[in-house]
Amino acid sequence: MTPALLSVASAALIAAWPGARARADGAVLVVGKVSPRDREVIVDTVRGEGTALALKFSSSIFSRDAADAAVACLKDRTPWSCVASAIRGKDQLVIVEVDSDLGAGAPMTIVTAHLLTAGAEDETFANRNCAMCNEDALKRAVGDLSRDLLQRAATRTGRTRLAIHTAPGGAQVMLDGAPAGAAGDTMVTYPGRHTVLVQLRGHAPLTRDVVAIDGKTIELSIDLAPARIRRDDRPSQFLPGLAIGVGGAAMAVGGLMILFDQDPQPRGPQQPHFYDTATAGTVSFAAGLVLASAGLYFALRPAATSTATVAPVPGGAAIGWAGRF
User: Fold this and answer.
1) pLDDT tens digits for 130-151?
2) Looking at 50-159, which runs of residues are DSSP E strands?
3) Residues of the chain with CATH 2.60.40.1120
4) Mean pLDDT, to the nearest integer, of 108-128?
């Protein structure tokens, strides 16, 4: 593939179909300076991402004027209304524009995707850079952008929902690594596989995989078990006990030093020797009291019931910590 400046403008029509109506096909329109092989890669990639969301795409060929006019409509204040009616005949439309750029520096492919939704005169967009872009890199760039925008569009329709229930109730839900609210709420998402993590204080977190289906509400019930504290997880009593012992001894020594403190005789010959131990005894008693109190606090405090949580997400995992400290 010749290094090029690739601008991908995708427009997807997601209409509000009744539940019993099948979703119609969509089209992929590729324009600009693009090789037949790259055109095939782009169309197949968008098709694959659409299939995962219960959307069907085909490759459609429109006139050059109609294609250029569709791209120009992305700058219009009402872009979907601007698109020619012949192109709006499809329920989903993805427009891909490819231009060559051999400017200074390393050859760069820039992928920009715009999403239009029927009935809403606004658009969302995303872009990605690809240096020295080959066929695999082009496929990844187009796939990532079309997946992101089509998932957002599918979520906005509100057709696909998850209802998460936990026993006991009140758990917090993470959906694909992102906070999704409390158990018992109905969550809007897009068709496909999702990872659900539920967390409740005092209970072990639990992860479940669920497949959301277009046009349906999937119910998922999860029973949470109380968190278990392993013996090795209990705080050691050695250091608190040592602090209490040393602090108690310091208090005892300080008390004796205060008790046996001597002062010089106010009258008569000056005592050749006397023991002025009050100040040192006071310091020793105070330090011992602080040390013993700290040891007593750590010895009596409740054991922690914390646990690490790991939620698998696309391309990695979300790591957190839940519990009582």
Assistant:
1) 777 888 988 998 999 889 988 9
2) 57-59, 92-99, 108-117, 120-131
3) 160-228
4) 76
210-243 tens-digit pLDDT: 999 989 999 999 999 998 766 555 566 778 888 8
What CA–CA distance (Å, rounded) separates 76 from 84? 13
Comparing 12-26, 75-89, 134-148, 206-220, the range with the smallest average pLDDT is 12-26
Name the CATH code of domain 160-228 (choices 2.60.40.1120, 2.40.160.20, 3.40.50.150, 3.40.50.1240): 2.60.40.1120
Q: Which residues pair with 312 in a beta bridge?
A: 317
3-state secondary structure of 48: helix
CA distance 27 to 175: 31
The residue among 288, 277, 208 whose CA lies nearest residue 252 is 288
- Using alpha carbons, select from 52, 61, 126, 53 the residue that is nearest to residue 90: 61
Nearest one of 165, 162, 178, 166 to 202, comparing CA atoms: 166
Nearest Cα to 281, choosing from 250, 254, 262?
254
Buried b (16+ CB within 10 A) or exposed e, 96-135: bbbeeeeeeeebbbbbbbbbbbbeeeebeebebebeebee
The DSSP H or E segment spanning 186 is strand 186-189
Query: How far is 5 from 68, CA to CA, in rounded Å?
Result: 17
Q: For residue 221, give the H/E element and its range.
A: strand 217-223
Give the three-state DSSP class for 177.
coil
